[in-house]
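A protein record in our archive is deliberately plain, so that people and models can read it alike. The tokens are whole numbers drawn from a learned vocabulary of local backbone shapes. For reference, a complete record is included directly beneath this paragraph.
>
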Amino acid sequence: MDIQTRTDFTRALMTRDRKSVARNREVKKLVFDEDSFDQLFMLLFHHQASLVTRSAEAVDKISKQNPGYLIPHKQQIFAMLKSGDYHALKSLLAKLSVRIIWDAEELDEVWRILVYWTMNPNENKNIRVNALQALFDLAQKDDALQVSFEDLAETLKFQHAPSLEARLKKLKILA
């Protein structure tokens, strides 16, 4: 990673007096190609938690517009999904999982992980909701997953988790 670029990202992400939106705009200006995105992505592995969190926000926003930037990071994302070491990034990983083209074996594992996160009542509600949304989005791309998602949605009706019920209503799964 170029020292100047790393410094620019760190400065933009760590400034305390800025709102998240302004910070993300500044970071977006620094990401102008895949190489600069790669440098931002590497900050997800930084030792400082607040920098990781802010980097994750920026990676989410930028990859939403440019999902192709995630291609070189597919295996890293897959490894992070499978690892328990990235708890703080689970919401991001759920979102990113939809923007990647998985082979059948990988997709099966990603699906199982996201189902586990969704169904786990001990999991943070934001993680559960983002995992549920990711499952819905993945199911829209695959008929076999659509059936699995419908079964999951039916099961979730009995968990009485307000955040999940609200998301299912938003997805028009619950009346």
In short: The chain has a mean pLDDT of 88. DSSP finds ten helices and no strands in the chain. The radius of gyration is 17 Å. The chain has two domains: 1-65, 74-175.
